[in-house]
Amino acid sequence: MVPICRDSGAVIAFGGRQMDADQGGPKYLNSPETPIYSKSRTLYGLNHTKAAVRKLNYAILVEGYFDFAQLVQAGVSPVVASCGTALTPHQAQLLRRFTSKVVLSFDPDAAGQNAAVRSLDSLLASGLAMRVATLPNAPLPPWMMFRYFFSA
User: Fold this and answer.
1) Percent of the chain, pLDDT > 70?
2) Nearest CA to 67 among 151, 149, 124?
3) Residue 37 CB contacts under 8 Å (≥ 6 apart), including other chains
4) Is residue 75 part of a domain?
5) Which of 40, 75, 80, 119 maximizes the CB count within 10 A of its CB?
6) pLDDT, tens only, 48-76
7) Does 52 reside within a domain?
8) What CA–CA distances, in Å, run from 143 to 38, 43, 57, 62, 75?
């Protein structure tokens, strides 16, 4: 279970990952939509990284909580997550409040690449300058991802 917070730090929902695939249901599950929590209007981790995003004037956008956690653990601070979906116009506008540049780094699987393509319109419409980081299809440990990410 992970807390999902507003950019101010207030907890507004929770997300969880199913540990036993035999139980059926979704692999990841968030709290239901409420008047204070809307997945399409929330960027995971922004409450922790907004100072770095502002200071460096870019954000690395990843798909999920654990992608976010791996990069933060590897020392990459200007990162946020869209929580497993393509970036929405609301999320892009929220991100635009803190930076003018985004590096899109979704998973190299088909679902991640499709979500990346669907995110491009929202990024362009919000006026964010963007780059797309393509990672190799094999899983990388956090330290190697950090090295790969910034060597290209």
Assistant:
1) 88
2) 149
3) 4, 12, 13, 31
4) yes
5) 80
6) 999 999 999 999 999 889 889 989 988 89
7) yes
8) 32, 24, 23, 16, 9
- 8 lies in some domain: no
Return the amino acid letter for 89: P
Phi, psi (rounded to 5 degrees) for 3: -75, 140
What would the two tokens of residue 45 be? 């981790």
For 20-54, give the DSSP string. -GGG-S-SEEEPPP-SS--GGG--BTHHHHHHHHH
8-53 pLDDT, tens digit per residue, is 999 999 998 888 878 888 888 889 999 999 999 999 999 999 999 9
Q: Which tokens belong to 52?
A: 């770095």
Q: What is d(CA 141, CA 6) in angstroms, rounded to the nearest whole number?
A: 28
Q: What is the pTM of this model?
A: 0.85
Residue 13 lies in a domain: no
Query: For the residues of 54-109, what is the DSSP string, one character each?
Result: HHHT-EEEESSHHHHHHHHHTT--SEEE-SSSPPPHHHHHHHHTT-SEEEE---SS
CATH code of the domain covering residue 127: 3.40.1360.10
